[in-house]
Structure formats: structure tokens, C-alpha cells
Specification:
With 496 residues, this protein is an alpha/beta fold. It has helices at residues 35-41, 55-59, 75-80, 101-104, 120-132, 225-237, 262-274, 289-302, 310-319, 353-357, 362-365, 376-381, 397-401, 425-434, 451-461; strands at residues 2-6, 17-22, 25-31, 93-95, 116-119, 142-144, 150-151, 158-159, 167-169, 172-175, 180-183, 186-192, 201-207, 210-214, 242-246, 280-283, 305-308, 334-337, 373-374, 386-389, 408-411, 441-442, 465-469, 484-485, 493-495. The structure holds zinc ion (2 copies).
Length: 496
Amino acid sequence: MTSLTFHGGVGEIGGNKILLEDGGKRIWLDFGMSFKQSGLYFDEFLQPKKYNGVIDFLEMGLLPGVTDMAGFYRQDYLAHADMPTSPDAAYDGVFLSHAHADHANYIHFLRSDIPIYASEVTKRILASLEDTSSSGFNEFLNFKETFTLRPKKTGEGMMKPKSEETKVARDFRALAPGERVVVGDLTVEAMAVNHSIPGALGFLVHTPQGVIAYTGDIRFHGYGGALTRDFVKRAAEAQPIALICEGTRVKKDEDETESLTEQDVQERVAKVVNQTKNLVIANYPWKDIERLRSFYEVAKMTGRKLALSLKQAYLLKRLEGTDAGAPSLGDGNIVIYIDRKTWGLINKPHYPQNIVEQDYSAWEREFLSYPNRVTCDDIHRHQSDFIVRVDFFDLTDLINIRPDDGSCYIRSITEPFDEEGEIELERVENWLKHFGLYPYEQVHASGHASGAEIKRLIEEINPKLVFPVHTEHPELFVAPPGTRVEIPQAGKSYRL
Ligand SMILES: [Zn+2]
Ligand SMILES: [Zn+2]
């Protein structure tokens, strides 16, 4: 018997956590964070308590209360919360479709011996997030055991070990597109798809009952759009018994003509940049390499340099040698914008280098000596030479950069909502008005297939059953004759 249980992504965009069970084997398709559920109870200053481990998350319905918690969640967290632990993992793997938080973030809470499968690019993006983010719940590849003590070196008394001392690597396995993983009677086939982050996969799970296809998050346009079309073709050939299908953009009265492609974004941004006398300031998702490429192409066409943030520079360095399609850090049209931090000494030449370096985290320091680094003063003095990315959390940089009249701001987020959390538009607009950057340009192309494309995808794949996930409108899914739409309920098991 094969069954599916949906522990997230039901009636909401993101938070996918789908359990697939077959003959005693149990695998997960994604294990993401639900922004909706989290937003009901928590915010920036009202956060789950670390000492409670998984308890706060279980209590508020953010993590699933599975049957075998001891074999699933982190042992250090369970033990500290006086919950049962187990020497053995009770689950056989998590297959991550991509590195967006709403699909991947909660692997932080899982035991280190449960294998995590994802593309090489996803692995490197998660490594990059782990190294650069300050959040307390980002142990994707390396697992630091907490709440432990060790004897002092002097032999007397106990001490808390440094986090480096308790570090264990997770069982993280990189999948090549087309690769198959055998788990008992299941064979999971990974297929590359295109989305607003590189390295995205869709899965075909071959079960004794037939194939279950999972789209993950997909779009048909963009530089890698052909990958999605290949996935659909391959899924159709497999004649699936079930299709777990995203529907982010499925809504009433969709106007498909509204939707731009990545190519349109490039053209429109080029037009705006060509008309801008001074500085071009843009905000786009920092992990969206296709969008970065669009801005990079425009920089090349218009004789400007694209200024990357330190996080982007680090990510690009991590992605070197992969098929993520990112430009090289040493490219003539790329510069690295070193923003001011802590004491803000980067543009104060009379301070010694070792003191300046202390403004930056270890992972940032190597970029300080890159020949193509720029500071706020460089950008201020040569405004017509740059396109600089300034995101919500860096809006104070505008005070240092001081854009002159004739500068512009391009808002180029992928979705009206943000899969990585809500952005406060009103506050952004106040900043833009203050700096004479209002009205601003809005140039956006979605990371998701349109409702009409999803309808055609279902027709082409022609599965027996469709489970709509990652959508606020599962009731609007339309299926061809011979296909039944089953709207999943959270926590309920569906036998196939
Ligand atoms: Zn998503
Ligand atoms: Zn996504």
C-alpha cells in the first residue's frame, strides 16, 4: 500500500511537507516552513524559544506531530525537552525540491542521520545560507548538537563546548538531474525544473502502485524554461496515478496577458536604465540567479556595472563550477558592493586594515581585498556607472550612497507576496519618497506557472488523481475527463 499525507502546503502557498509511505518505507517530499502558520503566532520579536526545541513548533502546528517523533526530530532538542529519544531513524529520507524557505527550512529540526536529497546547486545554496545567515534555525548541512556539556580541560567541573566542537555533518546527498534513488520498493527520479531559484527539481516517485509525480515549484519561462517542459513530457510518459501539483497563481479571473517573462523583465529594465541619468537602484530576490542574470545582461548592454551584495558574492562563489548559470565574480561588469557595517570603517582609509576587517564576519572578509570591490563613496561619485541592489534590510545604505536627482529605483520581486516572508511595502515607499526615488518602477516576472499553464500541464500529464498544493485556491483546479481533483486535508492520509 502506498499513501500520501499532507502536513503542509494545504490551502496555502508554501510550507510543503508531504509524507509518502510504502511498505514500511517513509520519505518526505520537502520539509518547508509555512509563513502563513508561523505568521499567525510569531513575528520578528515574538519568536519560538530555543530551549524548547521542537515543542513551540509542535504546539503551534508549525511542525507535524508525526507518529514516531523520536525517530524523526533532533535528539538534542528532544532530550533537552524531556521527550523520548531513539537510537534509530524512523524515516528514510527527505527529497528537497529547491532551497526556498517554504520547502527546505525545517530540515533544521530533523535528526542528522535522516538522508537529505537535493540537487548540488540546492546543497550549495543551503550551505551559503547556513554560513551567512544569523537566524538560529539554519543547520541545513552541518548540525551542531546543543544543550550538551563537556568536562573542563583542567578536569574540574563542566563547561559548554564551543559550537564548532559539536558539529556533525548531516547525511546530505546531492542528486544529479535524472538520477534515481532506490528506497525499498520506491524509486525516486529527480528531474530539473525551472523556478525563481536555481537547482530546482521535480520528482517522479515510482511506487508498486504506479508513479506519483511532484512538481515542486515550477515556471515555464526563463532561461531554463525548457527544463520544465521536459519534466512535463517525462511525467506524461510515466502515466502517473497521482500528480502533486503546485498552484501558486491559480485564481479566479486570471489575466494571462498580465504576466511577464524573464525576457520581458530584461527588456523593460533595459529601457528604464537607458532613461536613467544617474544611479539605478534595484531590489530583486538575492538567490534568484535568473533575475541577477537579467540585471547583469542589462548592465552589459548599458555600459554599467552590476553591484552585488556581499551575500550574493558569497553565493556566486559557492555556485562556481555548477550549472546554476551565474556570471563569474571576476566579470568586467560585476562589482562587489562592500556596505558599511558595525563601525562603518570601509570608507575610512586612515584605519588599519585589521581593524576595518573586524567590521565584517569571517565569510565576508575575503571580498574586502577583491580588486572589483566598491564602497558607498565609489557609487556616490560615479552614479551613472552602476546598478546597485539595495534590499529592504539595507535601505539605510541610501543614507550613505546619497543618490542624486535623476536616479531611479526598480522593484523586481518575483511575487506580489514574498515566499521568503512579508516585506513592508509602505515603509519601503517612505524611504523612496525621502530620497526622491518615488514613483518607482515595478518590473516583475513570476517564479510560478500561470493558472492557465497549470491547467495545460495537468491535461498533458493526464494523471488519475491531482492533489493541489502550494495554492490558496485548490477548488479552482480544473482537470480533464478521467482525472479527479482531490483537495488534500492537512494531516489526512490518502491511500493510492
Ligand atoms: Zn514555494
Ligand atoms: Zn519556491
